[in-house]
Prior knowledge:
alpha/beta, Cytidine Deaminase, domain 2, nine-stranded mixed β-sheet, two-stranded antiparallel ribbon, 4 helices, globular, binds zinc ion, metallopeptidase activity, metal-binding, metal ion binding
Amino acid sequence: MDAEDNLRRPPPKRPYAPVDQVLKVPAQALEATLSLLQRAGDRESGLFWYGARDAAGNGIVRHVAAPRQTMSWGNFHIAPEALAEIVHRLPQGCKPLAQVHSHPGMRVEHSNYDDRMMSSRRSLSLVFPSYGASRGVFPEGIGVHEWQIDYWHLLGDTEARRRVVVTDGSATMEDRRWP
Length: 179
Ligand SMILES: [Zn+2]
């Protein structure tokens, strides 16, 4: 498999326009996310954040899921059936809020491949560096992306801090990657 990270994409035609919506992620969900990414070892892995979204578009993460997938040092792939296994078991009202995946190095911008792999444009996309090795204060060093008009924008530090906020509360996790 090719390293998806090598597939650079063109820059945006217009700048990201900051939005009012906030995605809240309980510290417990964040810990689960790092743990799931680190369990993949020196391989990229993809996860999903699910939870509630209010009428204004604000979300709170309640469930972190790792579907069945193939993983390699520079790529991962989730088949639609593998994602369906997760989605069909979600509680009523649970919506996809973000896709999460890891990169080998410090580069956390979407590749062309990442743009194509996004299953929902209403979700955010978070890219964790160094296979999820934790460092810094979230979301420092993490690539937070949001779709606007025609592009998955990589948010600047200030915008990312405003858009995704760590909060209290509980979250569950699910790992279907291993037999
Ligand atoms: Zn990627």
